[in-house]
């Protein structure tokens, strides 16, 4: 049997894993610099925790686990008829599936907060770096299993949190040397717009259409809005407005003057623009973000180049996320870094520093069992000093051992032959320069350190 | 709706996550000290990659994913009848499920090696630290989602690899300060025993029974063997033999003298015992390990105390693991550290060093907007020096801000009030000693570093 991998998923070999770890380490260090703490939740969640949180389209993309031991059950007839219903409607019965794979890290976070609200100290600042799963059609930059790196503060209304998130985003991408633009907007502005055009109750319809501006263009959005019977005259002004951040704010103060919530949103954006230290922020009044739980600031990051038009980070403020789990009045704000897309962009822009697939500095090689015994002894001593070293495990031709070092990019090879055993030395070869010299252990350590 | 977590899974809050990370960091550093390289594979695997690899019992424990978009399919009748079959037999159709969650990290590793054998440099040394999933009945120390930390060398027959694994195991637990016993045995010895008692073809039946010795005791194993119609006279000698490692070897040399493979196994064990530096190895001739792909040395680690009788590490040599995927002649050996059980044992033995849930050294607090502005400025400066610091995000009573620092175990609190703004200073309080003094930024940095 020729093995295959699930479409839309990937293996990461040693070098790729090291590069992913490089990104994760930078993100973690920035999250921790601002006092965020790690959280881990399971991949498995109860189906009812997830369904109804991501809209109809999202619900369809949740991977559901087939109940195990179906055939040991006493309720075969019920199960069969429930399955029939599942095939007919979009409904999935608890007799068929009770567990699912998490779709993002935000809903599991809300579940965690609701379940632990008595013991949590608010404001609660957590980060979470784990895989999520979506039953999506695989395509460029879209995977069925991918890592999100989430950072959220819950239990504080202050815009200071938005400012700190902007700072984390800026510092992270700057450390990664990845040139990006941070787009921000505010759902209250979108609320205000819906109010001003007399379509207050159609907010979600409006935002989901505007959200597609990048993909289907101005004409596409217009067409979609018309098909939804939303008047487009006054909306077009918004979609077509060009200007600096200050001009946008002036324009919106006029446009939204009859909407209290709209003006609130403008004030919030103005505060962020006036107080952030970041120079890469773009106030984009057409930024909408699809998810319907956002209520204030929204964030999106796109790479300046790298052939990926989709966003590599998204997020926003949500006032009522934990309400669904019975915990009211806890406002939060957070963003999610897309590890896999960041990786892809950095790879295509060749932004990774020189990273080796292992930490091994020295391969010890030999001709026979006596040499092997000496190599093992020496390796033990070096490892006790925390020096990463390998001993070639099999007695094979020395050429083959050097080949191994070469393919693995190990910078030094030490040979212990009969002479070296006698002299208590190692013949050390620098694989880059090609130079070799007989050294004692002190000089060996000096060289490979 | 009151949210719940899937039974047999756990959330890990900040402190627990940090402790898990502490264990992972130690394991990783030891793996890398010996030249092992990271590998990541997806949680999702094709069903046929996993089934048939873990025996009948194992197959029943594989979580299978319900095919999505069942109801968009054209083949509703086929699906319905296939589902009926699933309910009747133990068979699960590809019309119902094509994907599953990995059951361990070994089979995905074998799949990876088979799919990438052209580009891999052998011997290939990889480690992998990821969650695995089992549809098991949850109980103490048994989870449905848990982390394995695997370390394997593939493409080398040398016993040097076994020696290095023993060294990694010893160094890892020693660094974790966790007292353990490393049990070893060799499948060839078990083969030899089966041969000697004239039951060569019943090896798996014998090993699965012996494997239960810890759980069901000598009488239980005997009863099970008798029910399988395996003669127990000569086997009892093995199960009851007591003695030092040397006595065991002498005993087995006599017992197995008519079995070539048995003597091979004894020689291998003797080599390891003579050459290992570890002092915590116990040669246990009743150690069997359930999995049927092992062909040589087998390993198991148990904690000396901590109330968990089950193993916290297992592994062994497998000569034919990749054969199932069409890649022959690649022998490997590896072990799997059980992160969750190691965590549980360390927690119950109180072995974690003092670990804080965040890196924050300083919380900046204030009375009003002016103070907040100064705190933000100061925080920016300190973070630019990579000093982890937080600013309380909301303008609330100073007492509440101190409470936050106290609950979060933040060692220093800085207050910036009108006086401090005027003097360009901070009132710094050491939360442990209770002492406070007005300091300038240079002395502030000195204190919190």
Q: Give the mean pLDDT of chain A.
A: 93
The major pleated sheet of chain A works out as: 8 strands, mixed
Structural class of chain A: alpha+beta
The largest interface is: A-B, 109 and 109 residues
DSSP strand tally of chain A: 16
Low-confidence stretches of chain A: none
Going by CATH, the architecture of the domain at 180-303 in chain A would be 2-Layer Sandwich
Described by its quaternary structure, the protein is homodimer
CATH class call of the domain at 180-303 in chain A: Alpha Beta
CA gyration radius of chain A, whole angstroms: 28 Å
User: Which term fits the overall shape of chain A?
Assistant: globular
Count every helix of chain A, treating DSSP H or I runs of 4 or more residues as helices.
17
Widest sheet, order of strands of chain A:
1-5-6-11-10-9-7-8
Helix content of chain A: 40-55%
Report the sheet-strand fraction of chain A: 15-25%
Can you tell me the CATH superfamily of the domain at 180-303 in chain A? Answer: Bira Bifunctional Protein, Domain 2
Give structural notes.
Two copies of one chain form a homodimer. Chain A is an alpha+beta fold and 449 residues long. Among the domains of chain A are: 180-303, Bira Bifunctional Protein, Domain 2 (BirA Bifunctional Protein, domain 2); 362-448, Anticodon-binding domain (Rossmann fold, 3-Layer(aba) Sandwich). Chain A has helices spanning 14-33, 47-50, 55-60, 76-88, 106-115, 160-175, 187-196, 203-210, 213-227, 233-240, 245-255, 260-275, 339-348, 369-384, 398-407, 418-423, 441-448; strands spanning 37-38, 44-46, 64-66, 99-101, 124-133, 145-154, 180-186, 281-283, 297-303, 313-318, 332-338, 362-366, 389-391, 412-416, 426-430, 436-439. In chain A, the strands form three sheets. Chain A has an eight-stranded mixed beta sheet. Chain A has a five-stranded mixed beta sheet with strand order 13-12-14-15-16, with helices on both faces. In chain A, strands 2-4-3 form a three-stranded antiparallel beta sheet. Chain A is globular, with a radius of gyration of 28 Å. The model of chain A has no long low-confidence stretch (mean pLDDT 93). At the A-B interface, helix 1, strand 1, strand 2, strand 3 and helix 4 of A face helix 1, strand 1, strand 2, strand 3 and helix 4 of B. Strand 3 of chain A pairs antiparallel with strand 3 (64-66) of chain B.
């Amino acid at each position: 049997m020729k093995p295959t991998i699930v479409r839309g998923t990937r293996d990461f070999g040693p070098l790729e894993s090291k590069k992913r770890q490089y990104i994760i380490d930078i993100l973690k260090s920035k999250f921790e610099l601002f006092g965020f703490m790690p959280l881990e939740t399971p991949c498995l969640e109860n189906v009812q925790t997830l369904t109804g949180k991501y809209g109809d389209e999202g619900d369809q993309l949740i991977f559901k686990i087939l109940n195990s031991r179906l055939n040991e059950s006493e309720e075969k007839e019920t199960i069969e008829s429930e399955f029939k219903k599942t095939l007919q409607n979009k409904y999935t019965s608890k007799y068929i599936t009770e567990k699912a794979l998490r779709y993002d890290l935000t809903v599991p976070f809300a579940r965690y907060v609701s379940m632990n609200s008595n013991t949590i100290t608010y404001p609660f600042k957590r980060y979470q770096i784990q895989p999520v799963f979506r039953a999506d059609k695989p395509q460029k930059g879209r995977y069925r299993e991918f890592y999100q790196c989430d950072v959220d503060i819950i239990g504080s209304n202050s815009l200071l949190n938005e400012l700190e998130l902007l700072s984390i985003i800026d510092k992270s991408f700057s450390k990664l040397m990845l040139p990006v633009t941070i787009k921000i907007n505010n759902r209250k502005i979108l609320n205000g717009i819906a109010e001003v055009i007399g379509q207050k109750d159609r907010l979600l319809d409006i935002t989901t259409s505007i959200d597609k501006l990048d993909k289907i263009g101005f004409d596409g959005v217009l067409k979609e809005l018309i098909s939804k019977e939303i008047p487009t005259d006054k909306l077009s002004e918004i979609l077509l407005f060009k200007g600096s951040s200050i001009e946008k704010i002036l324009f919106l103060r006029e446009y939204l003057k009859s909407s209290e919530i709209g003006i609130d949103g403008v004030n919030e954006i103005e505060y962020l623009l006036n107080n952030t230290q970041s120079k890469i922020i773009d106030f984009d009044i057409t930024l909408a973000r699809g998810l319907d739980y956002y209520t204030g600031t929204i964030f999106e990051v796109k790479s300046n180049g790298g052939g990926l038009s989709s966003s590599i980070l998204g997020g926003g403020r949500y006032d009522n996320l934990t309400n669904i789990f019975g915990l009211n009045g806890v406002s939060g704000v957070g963003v999610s870094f897309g590890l896999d897309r960041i990786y892809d962009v950095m790879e295509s822009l060749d932004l990774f520093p020189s990273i080796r697939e292992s930490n091994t500095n020295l391969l010890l090689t030999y001709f026979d069992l006596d040499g092997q015994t000496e190599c093992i002894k020496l390796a033990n001593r070096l490892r006790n000093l925390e020096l990463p070293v390998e001993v070639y495990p099999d007695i094979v031709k020395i050429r083959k051992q050097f080949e191994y070092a070469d393919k693995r990019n190990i910078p030094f090879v030490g040979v212990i032959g009969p002479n070296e055993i006698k002299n208590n030395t190692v013949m050390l070869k620098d694989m880059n320069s090609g130079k070799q010299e007989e050294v004692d252990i002190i000089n060996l350590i000096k060289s490979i350190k």
